[in-house]
Design a protein that fits this description.
The protein has 36 helices and 9 strands. It is mainly α and 883 residues long. It folds into 3 domains: 371 residues, no CATH class; 145 residues, Transcription Regulator spoIIAA (2-Layer Sandwich); 106 residues, no CATH class. The strands form 2 sheets. Strands 3, 4, 5, 6, 7, 8 and 9 form a 7-stranded mixed sheet that branches. Helix 5 packs across helix 12, helix 10 crosses helix 12 and helix 22 runs parallel beside helix 25.
């Protein structure tokens, strides 16, 4: 492409007055010895172009645009490198045959080149052909036969077990070819084309011609992109072979720096060379050290010994290149493998290959990328949809049309959409799903079954009551896709279909929640397809028949009672069946990690039982003619279900309560004796952070799995109340307590409200316990003297908690009740639990106060601590109130 730009600019400048018709051709033919082009001007164009390409590549790196190479699929890379290899092979044919041909650039240049070759076959240089033939035969024999044998033998030597040293046949051919050409004067006697003059040293640094920049910007951008694509295609080809990682942005830095620096020394635009890389790999090069040796050797040749290779026949070099690209040429076999796997990828390969070969590399890149993107869009625009069936009555669900031992489940249609649902394929999702369940897209009503449709289709659609959408393949829902997704479910609801969503990813669930899923449609979310099927089958088998009988039997009270008795028995049997899957041992109660399989079964059982009870209660409310006896029989049977739900969840909840109690007890390991003004005053304590992290984790891992929110709040509320009482009891016993520690405890009061929020809908639902929490927090910020006449003490905050806290404010010689009894705080909390009566607790505190009085008298002190009077007054008021 560089030569095209140089030819265009320099040729137009020189020939515009000589051959005007030439400039109108899309394909320009130029002889290699064309004397019309000014060499110095051509070099200036090429170096300035190289500089611009380098700048463009560095800008691509700065903006991290190397990621675009991710769009180069394996099919594209294979077709592109194979097409490029064909072009390289074609470029070497004139040197192999010894022909001097016109050079064509632009689209269809390969066709013109081969036409020129066949026209000039009579001019073949047979000496050149013999050299080429001998070189190729030698390379093939050594590469295919001698080199593997040589490596196998040399590996037996200990020194070469971990080092591979291939036979340097390329170097041997170059040396032998040079010697033979020099000794027999092949160029002079037989017109064999040779390398000729090899310049010595480097050009003097010279900057780019900035005046040419406007003319080269478009070409520089195109060449930079094409060079990147060629290089990355080649890099990925060998990265796959040698198993290493490619960083596209790092490659851009290397290419950009190479082009910018090289442009000052007369270098034209560079990129990874297919021919040179192939020769390098075939010679055994694997690492950067081999590159350094290669560069050092090239430097020596340029500076000192380049003239020794001036007699080297070009046929030798062409033969080495042709053999080196053999592996890339054999990639044509990939089309059969790719086509066998996917026809669309085969189209990408064919289009990329043909456009590269016929139109040239830049057009090949353009058309290959375009076709690759079209294939990606087609796959997303019309993705696969699958109807799932149950595999041999197991928990596995597969494509019902593909496997003979997979069958659809009566009354249920399981639909899977195997793509993200986004704006351009959301309508296709809607059309596919509604068509699958037999809804007319125009009317929105159930479609009338045509007589020419199969009997199985008729039965399946007519009896269909439930639709399960398997969301496991839906990796993304955008705004438009989410809206159409919910609208489709609403249309299913309108046609009396009950819809389940399974394997719904949390971020897609968040999208649907923000779109107000619960307001738009009615849908049930379950963890797996089997859970949904299990729920539906239990609903159909256990309840529908019985309640159909109940509806019919309302004409006779005796028949109603008999049917109600049967329903009660069925409910009890259903509860007994569910009880078998419930685990109440340690595996069902742990909370230290993610839910165990036993806990997941318990959660599933609770969800099923809760939905079961809700459905029966709803049906009972609809049966207005039932007698009170029939209703009582059924509701009494439901008590078994409620009892079983409590049995299933209590081991887990007890573990949660125990963990909360253990975390709260750790507050006494922290130091609350700091004075006011420290940085930690406004921060919550470590135990509170641990408590919040624990509750957030169980809310995410456990609570979120329960569908029965009302049942959960009913059972979690007592735990929250217990946590509040324990929290205040522990806080009242904290000693020593400084002003800074007191401020931290005030912050902890606010934080525990946030921590306990998942346990109830609103904290105000906790009633008096929440009032006690708020009132005690207000007391903490008061001065000690303000406690004496505070109306909240006794009326809201229990006397014992206030008195315990006042002991914490007292001097050290006024010991707390647990200190007087020589108990640990845990032992004292246990005693408080065993003595809920306030009079017992106040008597204990009175004894503690008497112990303090006796201690003061024994020490013959003249007065008590000022806080003693406040504690005594509050204690007497408390004893009077409980008397």
């Amino acid at each position: 492409m560089t030569s095209n730009v140089v030819d265009r600019l320099s040729v137009k400048t020189t020939l515009s007055t000589i051959i005007p018709s030439l400039l109108n051709k899309t394909t320009i033919e130029i002889r290699s010895d064309d004397g019309l082009i000014d060499p110095s001007y051509a070099i200036t164009i090429a170096t300035t172009l190289a500089f611009m390409v380098g700048i463009t590549q560095l800008l691509l790196c700065i903006f991290h645009l190397g990621f675009v190479t991710s769009f180069l699929s394996d099919s594209f890379i294979s077709g592109y490198t194979t097409g490029t290899a064909i072009l390289v092979f074609t470029s070497q044919l004139p040197d192999i045959l010894g022909l001097s041909l016109k050079r064509y650039v632009g689209p269809f240049n390969i066709i013109y080149t081969y036409a020129e070759i066949f026209t000039n076959l009579k001019n073949i240089n047979f000496v050149t052909l013999i050299i080429s033939t001998c070189s190729i035969i030698t390379l093939v024999i050594v590469k295919e036969y001698l080199d593997p044998f040589y490596k196998k033998k040399i590996k037996k030597l200990k020194l070469f077990q971990n080092i591979q040293i291939p036979i340097p046949i390329e170097l041997i051919i170059i040396i032998v070819g040079t010697l033979v050409s020099y000794l027999f004067d092949l160029n002079g006697r037989y017109k064999v084309k040779i390398v000729n003059t090899i310049g010595r040293g480097f050009r003097k640094p010279q900057g780019p011609a900035l005046v040419l920049v406007p003319s080269l910007i478009k070409d520089a951008i195109m060449i930079a992109i094409v060079a990147l694509a060629i290089s990355i295609s080649l890099v990925k080809t060998y990265a796959k072979k040698f198993k290493y990682f490619v960083n596209s942005n790092q490659e851009l830095v290397a290419y950009g720096a190479c082009n910018i620096i090289g442009s000052f020394f007369g270098s034209y635009t560079s990129a990874a060379s297919l021919s040179r890389t192939s020769v390098y790999v075939n010679a055994g090069g694997r690492t950067q050290l081999a590159n350094l040796i290669s560069c050092a050797s090239l430097l020596i040749i340029i500076l000192n010994i380049g003239s020794l290779f001036e007699s080297l026949p070009k046929a030798c070099l062409a033969s080495i290149i042709v053999i080196a690209i053999k592996g890339l040429l054999l990639q044509t076999k990939d089309i059969y493998t790719i086509g066998h796997v996917t026809k669309l990828e085969a189209i990408v390969w064919i289009v990329t290959f043909l456009s590269t070969v016929i139109l040239d590399v830049d057009y090949g890149l353009f058309f290959g990328v375009i076709v690759s993107l079209v294939v990606v869009i087609l796959r997303q625009f019309r993705p696969r949809t699958t109807i799932l069936g149950q595999y041999e009555r197991s928990e596995v669900y597969k494509n019902a049309k593909r496997f003979t031992n997979v069958h659809e489940i009566p009354y249920i249609k399981i639909f899977r959409f195997e793509s993200p649902i986004i704006y351009f394929n959301a309508d296709y999702f809607r059309e596919s799903l509604l068509d699958t369940v037999g809804i007319d897209l125009k009317t929105g009503q159930r479609r009338n079954i045509q007589s020419n449709q199969s009997h199985d289709y008729d039965v399946n659609i007519r009896s269909l009551t439930h639709v399960i959408i398997d969301c496991s393949s839906i990796s993304q829902l955008d705004y438009s896709g989410g809206k159409i997704f919910l609208q489709t479910i609403k249309e299913l609801n309108d046609c009396q279909y009950k819809v389940y969503l399974c394997h719904l990813r949390y971020y897609n669930y968040d999208v649907l929640e923000k779109l107000e899923m619960n307001k738009i449609c009615s849908v049930i979310v379950t963890a797996t397809v089997h859970d949904a099927v299990h729920n539906i089958q239990d609903e159909l088998v256990e309840n529908n028949d019985q309640f159909n009988e109940l509806s019919v039997s309302t004409v006779s009270e005796a028949l109603v009672n008999k049917v109600a008795r049967n329903i009660g028995k069925a409910i009890q049997l259903f509860a007994a069946k569910c009880e078998q899957s419930i685990c109440t041992d340690s595996e069902g109660s742990q909370v230290v990690s993610v839910p165990t399989p036993a806990q997941l079964r318990n959660i599933s059982a609770i969800n099923i039982l809760y939905n079961f009870c809700s459905m029966i209660n709803k049906m009972l409310s609809e049966q207005q003619n039932l007698s009170s006896d029939a209703t009582t029989r059924i509701t009494d049977a439901l008590q078994c279900v409620h009892s079983l739900m409590h049995t299933a969840i209590h081991p887990f909840l007890n573990s949660v309560a125990d963990c909360i109690e253990a975390i709260l007890a750790t507050m006494h390991t922290e130091d609350f004796s700091q004075s006011a003004g420290s940085q930690s005053d406004s921060q919550s304590s470590l135990y509170m952070k641990e408590l919040q992290e624990f509750i957030i984790r169980i809310q995410k891992d456990y609570f979120s799995e329960f569908q029965c929110k009302d049942f959960m709040y009913e059972n979690l509320a007592p735990i929250a109340c217990r946590a509040i009482i324990l929290f205040m009891e522990h806080i009242s016993l904290v000693r020593p307590l400084g002003e800074g520690g007191l401020l931290r405890l005030v912050v902890d009061f606010a934080q525990i409200e946030l921590a306990l929020s998942p346990f109830c809908r609103r904290l105000t639902d906790l009633g008096k316990h929440y009032k006690i929490l708020k009132a005690f927090r207000s007391l903490l910020i008061l001065n000690t003297e303000e406690f004496q006449n505070n109306s909240a003490i006794g009326d809201v905050v229990p006397y014992d908690i206030v008195l315990h806290h006042l002991f914490s404010r007292a001097p050290i010689e006024m010991r707390s009740p647990h200190q007087v009894m020589n108990w640990s705080i845990s032992r004292y909390i246990q005693w408080l639990d065993e003595h809920p009566n306030m009079s017992d607790r106040l008597v204990m505190i009175k004894g503690t106060l008497e112990t303090y009085v006796q201690t003061v008298r024994n020490r013959q002190q003249k007065e008590f601590a000022p806080i003693y009077v406040i504690i005594l007054n509050i204690l007497e008021k408390g004893l009077t109130s409980v008397a």
